[in-house]
Amino acid sequence: MARATGTILGGLPWALALLAGVTAAVSTVWAIRGESEKSRHLAELERLRSLRTAAETRTRNESECSHCVSPEQARRLIQRLCPRPDVSATHRAPPTEAASAASGSPEQPSSRSMQEAYLAAVQRDQQKYSPEELAEIEDLYQQGNDAIESAAGEERLRTLIERYPDSNRAGCASMNLGAVYLNGGLLEEAQQHLEMLVEQQNSAVFESGEAVLPKALLNLAMLHHERGESRAALDAWRRVLTEHPEARDAQGVAYARLVEEQTLRRGYAADALQE
Description:
Elements: H1 2-64, H2 71-81, H3 97-103, H4 111-128, H5 131-146, H6 151-163, H7 168-183, H8 187-200, H9 212-226, H10 230-243, H11 255-265
Helix pairs in contact: 5-6, 5-7, 6-7, 7-8, 7-9, 8-9, 9-10, 10-11
């Protein structure tokens, strides 16, 4: 009995030491978990503070921005710069080949022939430029047109014209810039682009099949009219009729009809186009 008691008492210090070690280990684990939780909470708090600061900065910038426009204002600006074509709202669909034959009127170019003209222009570019160049041409054209009312969009179209002047898209870009400048009252800038297209006898074609050249002449006529240059305006309208008698716009309306409507609306006599 005494020996057993001695044995138990002899092992007691070891057990107490073990218990102390376990207690210390558990305390260390809880301390580590506590530090981890504390770090996580601090990180979350810092993230929330950053989000709040960013939101306050964005709100302050928006309130201080005097030149920012709302989506509705942007839509109205685009409508002002790129108005609908100056034609009557009561357009009739172009006559079919059968109807033309029955009425005795001359056959007009079909939408198929207009699309063929565009595809021919695309094929010309494919023979001139590499796939990489064609991709850049298309990117510049689309990005420029999407933001044509901005300085960035204008710069992209100008880059396209300067870098690939013989491409089909360059002619379309010049026409688009000329129309936007004309509608915005920037007559000098508009004349530069429109006259360049006429002097080049540019063969560019829009995706709709509408040719750039008669469109440039039509806009050039309106530009001269705005300046009070009646003789030059009539000359441009006559060139549309004599050089592009079968041309149609993107909606299929004959340019001859557009010329007639434009001259009558602007007070010219019915026989003013007769030389």
